[in-house]
Amino acid sequence: MLAPISASSNALQQYRKHPSSGPTELTLAMVRSIEEDDKPTKRGKKLETQKEAQVSKPTKAKTPQKRKSDQAVTSPPKPKKLKKPARRLILKSSSDSDSEYVPPQHKIASPSESESESSDDDTSGRGDTPPHSPTPEIPVCSNPPSPPPVTIPVSIPPIFPIPTTQPFTIIPIPTPIFTDTTTTTTGGEDLEFDSTYFNPYRAQSDDDDDELVTKCHLKAVNENIDQLLSSSSSGAHSEESLKALFSSVVKDHSASLSAAAKAIEASTSQCQQASLAVDASTKECKEATTKVNNLVSDAQLFLDSLQAAAQKNAQTVNASVDNLQRSLQSDRSKHEATCQAIEAANASLHANINDHLTQLEAELAI
User: Fold this and answer.
1) Could you say which of 44, 166, 317, 360 has the lowest number of CB atoms within 10 Å?
2) In whole angstroms, how far apart are CA 54 and each of 49, 51, 103?
3) Residue 104 pLDDT exceeds 50
4) Residues 74/27, Cβ–Cβ less than 8 Å
């Protein structure tokens, strides 16, 4: 029931704070009402007719039932042929609706017949006999009384969204379809192919004024050519003007070539100087490496000699320690022997002195 409500809602948190009261206890009034509802009810039609008869005759009082002793004293009543009523099984459903079950061999009496029978029974003189007992009614309860609802607090954990990833689809490369329109050629003698040539030299830029062939030179050449074309349209030029023009162009070109050659020579000289400096530095590095190698070898030799000397010193020290230990042990044994001899001599001396003292005492006593 609490599934559509989120766990973080304020209403659900306030509801969970209230303690559970448990099942409610039934009061006396509730128990009485349940017992009254469980009691079997009388037949509906005859009960209504009896009520109508009682309303129509309010003056007639109900005869009290007498005991068995009174019935024995009174005279027996006249026998009367009574019509045996059909047995009916009354089933009480949960909705308090009466349903009648009549066996097939008996017929259901109409309301008019039931009214006439009730009137005959009331008007006939029964005397002191008790009224005829009604047909036994069997109450059948289809459903027992429902217990009171029990509320149980249930905590539902929050449901976290599950991350979904789209699967990767791999589309294979379609196979080539060979048709009449698409045919492959492997080449032949009659076929010609275009070839491209890669020039490794760098092209000069027109925007750079410091280049050997500058933009100003090209502009001057273009102006001269334009003047030549414009003058050729007007009239013929002399060979001297053409020679002067070509000579100026050749001079400019030779000057640019000489400047380029000078720059190349200067760059080559710089490269040679740089190579000489590199050679000198490599020589110095080689000399330094040889010196370092010599120092390392000398240090290795010194360490080896030091290790050998340390081993020799350790051997000599160990030998001297062993000799000292042996000498100390021998001295200790000798000292113990002398101590034992001195103790024995002292014991013998004490014994002799005691003997002499006893002899002197004996002599003095005599």
Assistant:
1) 166
2) 9, 5, 30
3) no
4) no
Q: Are 102 and 108 in contact (CB under 8 A)?
A: yes
pLDDT for the residue 33: 86
What is the helix (H) or strand (E) element at residue 101, kind and residue range? Answer: strand 98-101
In terms of residues, how long is the chain? 366
Measured CA to CA in angstroms, residue 325 lies from 3, 32, 315, 320 at distances of: 93, 116, 15, 8
Query: Mutual orientation of helices 44-56 and 111-123 as an angle, nearest 10°?
Result: 50
**One-letter amino acid for residue 97 of the chain:** S
Q: Any residues with CB less than 8 A from the CB of 145 and at least 6 apart, and which? A: 34, 38
Read off the tokens for 81. Answer: 């042929």
- How confident is the model over 156-182, as pLDDT tens digits? 655 655 555 555 566 766 665 555 555
| pLDDT > 70: percent of the chain | 45
Task: Using the structure block, give the residue that is written with the tokens 């009916």.
Answer: 88
How many whole angstroms separate alpha carbon 218 and alpha carbon 314? 92
Cα dihedral 199, 204, 207, 210 in deg (nearest 10) = 160
Q: How confident is the model at residue 39 (pLDDT cuts 50, 70, 90)?
A: confident
How much is the average pLDDT of 194-214? 59
**Amino acid identity, position 200:** P
In the chain, alpha helices (H): 10-17, 28-38, 44-56, 68-73, 111-123, 215-234, 239-365
Number of Cβ within 10 Å of residue 49's Cβ equals 19
> How far, rounded to the nearest angstrom, does the alpha carbon of residue 200 sit from its chain's CA centroid?
60
- Max CA separation in the chain (angstroms): 192
Average pLDDT, the chain: 69
With a cut of 50, say whether residue 66 has pLDDT above it. no
